[in-house]
Amino acid sequence: MPIRYRGEPVSLLAVVVNLFVSMGGYIFGYDIVYISGCLIMPHFESSFGTPDSSVVGGFSLSAHRQAVIVALLSAGCWAGALLGVPTADFLGRRGAIFMVSVVFIAGVIVQIAPTGNLGAFIAGRFIAGLGVGALSALVPLYQGEISPKALRGSFVSCYQVMITFGILIAYIVDFGTKGIDGVASYKIPIGLQIIWGLILCAGTPFLPRSPRESILNDNIETARDVIARMHGIAIDDPLVQAYIDEIQEKIVEEKHSGAGYLDCFNFKNDLKTGQRTLIGCGVQSFQQLTGANFIFYYGTSIFASVNPSLDSYVSQIIFGLLDMIGTLPGLYCLDRFGRRRTMIVGALVMGITYMLYGVIGSFALYPDNNPNLTAKKGPGAGMLFVICIFVLAYGCSWGPGGWVNTGEIAPLRTRAKQLSFISASNWTWNFLLSYFSPFIAVDIGAKYGFVFFGANFLAAAFIYFFVPEMSGLSLESINTLFQESVPAYKSYEWNRKVKLADKKAADDIEHGGHSKFGRRPAQGTDSPPDLKEEIEV
């Protein structure tokens, strides 16, 4: 028996499938942050550092070597997003997820097989990054195509929830192994990733095939079966055929817009694929420029500077827990209040917190504005507080919101190719920030927060002027939204009317009528009072 959310039937199977494939997000989250705990482990420093008589262990990692170790994963992710995601077009969505999971496992093995070989270690980081980068786009791509539209935002947000869960578990594992006397202290956190990759590999063949991929390949019956199971209705239910008709109609329209790489940047075709690629790239770029990963990658250093008595590993766990807690309300906010409102408010709050971070750190935290001197305890507590508020705000908004936008922005025929460029833009900024942040922070200290303050306010403006409201719309209705060139700031009303039309169509179909989904209602149509709350963006 299906549940109904805003009038659309949704099955328990749809929930299970989305939660399982979100394992790709868990791998993503774990892999990008476990290294922060390893970097300060004595046996990691002795294996990959250089002799340094001034420290207790006799070895240390220079800022340059740390930056290379951290950033090589991002470089691999960038390449994986560009090269791995398009495999979804000829291997299928499931086949591509399986293949890149195998690549990820191979990269982990290369990292832990030798001991003390820096070249092999960073090569393994790069190879693992190929898999993580591809998964960062393939999972939202698949979730966007498989999910019922009413809960697509929540389901794709599960990817971010799993990212935060992976981050938290990585921090806990680092904390649990830091006291081991031997190379196992860092090899265990790295090697455990093989388990996560094997779980994803083992389950991927049992995932349902994307119905849109099936229809694109003229396999209508497979699509019919999957749509019925995802919605928890009979395969001969008229709603199933209505969903298929909507998808088929848009696939026919897309034939005129091309399906090659150049078509991803075509600004003149009917589907506005060029504009949509740039919107997706902009959202993913600003997700990095919020400054979240500066905290997640280098949070141990921040906490150590403002509260030296706090264990760096405990500080990591605090960050991870706050991020995961913040993401859970994001599941609700992105669907209930809409993508635009949630992400605009989130960006403004994050911008203010980084402004306070810069003010406190620059003018109150350090005596004489010298970041090399001992921190004052009082202002340090205020600095920690605003960082925690930032993490919560990011979890509620841009953390899941960036991936939701990725999962729904592109039309079907160029979808995999566009998402490869979109995800690569995320990893480009991820690499730049992870590599250069240590050097910038050393030079300007907490004033680095003013950079992210400005970036967050630019992010809010970008959403307002360029990103339309897509919550609750089918991927096919999103095509229509761009075909009609609806301005982003006017998209709320358009969105509301289309969802009202779809609700009326579903009611008509269930009572034996012949309505179709994805039709825009006539101008001036408004919501009856009893439907306004149900379809409100």
TrEMBL record:
Ranges for domain Major facilitator superfamily (MFS) profile: 17-471
Gene Ontology molecular function: carbohydrate:proton symporter activity
Cell location: Membrane
UniProt keyword terms in alphabetical order: Membrane, Transmembrane, Transmembrane helix, Transport
Record membrane topology: Multi-pass membrane protein
Coiled coil spans: none
Chief localization: membrane
GO CC terms in record: membrane
Keyword flag Cell membrane: no
Pfam families in UniProt: Sugar_tr
Transmembrane stretches, start-end: 12-44, 64-84, 96-114, 120-142, 154-173, 188-207, 344-366, 378-398, 419-442, 448-467
Region (Disordered): 505-537
Catalytic activity: myo-inositol(out) + H(+)(out) = myo-inositol(in) + H(+)(in)
Domain of life of the source: Eukaryota
InterPro entries noted in UniProt: MFS_dom, MFS_sugar_transport-like, MFS_Sugar_Transporters, MFS_trans_sf, Sugar/inositol_transpt, Sugar_transporter_CS
Family: Belongs to the major facilitator superfamily. Sugar transporter (TC 2.A.1.1) family.
Name of the protein: General substrate transporter
Source species of the chain: Rhodocollybia butyracea
